[in-house]
Design a protein that fits this description.
Largest sheet: 6 strands, mixed
CATH topology of the largest domain: Rossmann fold
Shape: elongated
Keywords: ATP-binding, Cell membrane, Ion transport, Iron, Iron transport, Membrane, Nucleotide-binding, Transport
CATH superfamily of the largest domain: P-loop containing nucleotide triphosphate hydrolases
Helix content: 25-40%
Protein name: Iron(III) transport system ATP-binding protein
Structural class: alpha+beta
Distance between the termini: 31 Å
GO cellular component, one term: membrane
InterPro entries: AAA+_ATPase, ABC_SmlMolc_Importer, ABC_transporter-like_ATP-bd, ABC_transporter-like_CS, ABC_transpr_FbpC, P-loop_NTPase
CATH class of the largest domain: Alpha Beta
Bound molecules: adenosine-5'-triphosphate
Pfam family, one: ABC_tran
Length: 341
C-alpha cells in the first residue's frame, strides 16, 4: 500500500543524513507507529511522504503508483494523504463545518460528507461553532474529521497528542484510534511516546539518526529489542556491565552487550527473614544495603550498594524494605545484543 524504498534526505549536501536509506512496506489498514527521539528524522520522513520535500534518493509509492522518485514528483494535494499535526491548524475564521468543507469543496455531496465526519468524531451538533469555542481535544477531533473527509489512502498523524495533558492525551488517543479503526484507513503515527505507540500500533518502527533500526510487532519490540537503545525506549533498562557481572556472579559473552529490564529484578525485602527457598529460585543473587529510598507514588526507587561495592538503582512495589536486602535476577530475563549496536 505504502512502499518506501531506500529513501535518503540530507539538508547539507550529503554531510549528514536526516534520513538514511529507509525502506518501509505498509499493508492497507495497518497502523504503523514511527518512534524516535528528537532529531531522529521523523518529521523529515513525514514531509517526504506528504510531498513537502523532495528525496535525494529512493522512491515512495502509494497504492502501486510512484509519488516521489528521481523521475517523478506528485504534488502534495494530489497524493490523497491526510495529515493531522500537533497544532490543530484549523482556520480560526471558519466554522467547524467550513473547516471540514475546505478540503472537499469539489465533492458533490460535500455537506452530507461534512456532517458524516462530524458524526464520526462525535461532534454532530458543533458544526456552526468556531475553533476557539472548542476544547483542545475537540479541536483535534475536528482536525481528524477534516483529514478523513476526502477519504485519503493514507492518514499521517504527526505527534497529534503532544499538546495535551496526560489524562486527556490517553482518552483522546483511545477515542481517535477507535474512530480510525472504524474507517479502516492506513495510518502512519509519528510519536516520541512509546506508550502511545504500544497502545495503538500494529507495528512499530524505530528511527535513530535517520535509520530504521527495528521494525516489529509491538509485543516483539518489548521482548526482543535489537539494541540497548530500543530496549531503553520501552522501559527502564540496566546494562549488565563487567562490574555487575562480577557482583551477580554471572560472567557473560564478552562479545555482546547485556541488559536487564528494571522490573525483572527480584527484590527480597529483607536479608534475615527471607525464605531461602525463594532465593534459591533466583539464578543470580547478591546482598545489598539500601542507601536511599524514594517513594514515587505506587512504586519505590531504591539506591543500593551491592556487596561488591557497586551501586545500582532499582524499583520495587514493596513498601516493607529493610536496610539490608537480597537482590537478584534470572538468566532468561537477560537481554543480549551484538556489541556493534
Ligand atoms: N530544514 C532543515 N535544514 C537543515 N537541517 C534540518 C532541516 N530539517 C531537519 N534537519 C535536521 O535533520 C535531522 C532530522 O530532523 P527531523 O526534524 O526530521 O527530526 P525529528 O525526529 O522529527 O525531531 P523532533 O522530534 O525534534 O521533531 C536533524 O538533525 C535536524 O537538525
Amino acid at each position: 500500500m505504502l512502499t518506501i524504498q531506500s529513501l535518503s534526505k540530507s539538508y547539507d549536501k550529503g554531510k549528514n543524513f536526516a534520513l538514511d536509506d529507509v525502506t518501509i512496506d505498509l499493508k492497507a489498514g495497518d497502523v504503523c507507529a514511527i518512534v524516535g527521539e528528537s532529531g531522529s528524522g521523523k518529521t523529515t520522513l513525514v514531509r517526504l511522504i506528504a510531498g513537502l520535500e523532495r528525496p535525494d534518493e529512493g522512491s515512495i509509492s502509494l497504492n502501486g503508483k510512484v509519488i516521489a522518485s528521481d523521475k517523478k514528483f506528485v504534488q502534495p494535494e494530489k497524493r490523497k494523504i491526510g495529515l493531522v499535526f500537533q497544532e490543530y491548524a484549523l482556520f480560526p475564521h471558519l466554522t467547524i463545518e467550513e473547516n471540514i468543507l475546505y478540503g472537499i469543496s469539489k465533492l458533490k455531496n460535500k455537506k452530507k460528507r461534512a456532517q458524516e465526519m462530524l458524526d464520526l468524531v462525535g461532534l454532530s451538533d458543533l458544526g456552526k461553532r468556531y475553533p476557539h469555542q472548542l476544547s483542545g481535544g475537540q479541536q483535534q477531533r475536528v482536525a481528524l474529521a477534516r483529514a478523513l473527509a476526502p477519504e485519503p489512502s493514507l492518514l499521517i498523524l504527526d505527534e497529534p497528542f503532544s499538546n495535551l495533558d496526560a489524562m486527556l492525551r490517553m482518552q483522546l488517543r483511545n477515542e481517535v484510534f477507535d474512530i480510525i479503526k472504524k474507517t479502516g484507513v492506513t495510518v502512519l503515527f509519528v510519536t516520541h511516546d512509546t506508550q502511545d505507540a504500544l497502545s495503538v500500533a500494529d507495528e512499530i518502527m524505530i528511527l535513530q539518526n535517520g535509520k530504521v533500526i527495528q521494525k516489529d510487532a509491538a509485543a516483539n519490540l518489548y521482548v526482543k529489542p535489537n539494541t540497548l537503545y530500543v530496549a531503553s525506549l520501552f522501559g527502564n533498562t540496566v546494562q549488565i556491565n563487567k562490574n555487575l557481572q562480577t557482583a551477580f556472579k554471572c560472567p557473560l559473552n564478552e562479545n555482546c552487550c547485556h541488559a536487564i529490564r528494571n522490573e525483572k529484578f527480584k527484590v527480597f525485602p529483607t536479608h534475615d527473614g527471607t525464605d531461602p527457598k525463594s532465593i534459591d529460585e533466583c539464578d543470580h543473587i547478591t546482598k545489598a544495603d539500601v542507601i536511599k529510598k524514594v517513594v514515587l507514588g505506587d512504586s519505590i526507587q531504591l539506591l543500593l550498594k551491592l556487596e561488591s561495592g557497586e551501586q545500582l538503582t532499582v524499583m520495587t512495589q514493596d513498601s516493607n524494605i529493610a536496610d539490608s536486602i537480597y537482590i537478584g535476577f534470572n538468566s532468561n530475563d537477560i537481554l543480549e545484543f551484538s556489541e556493534e549496536n
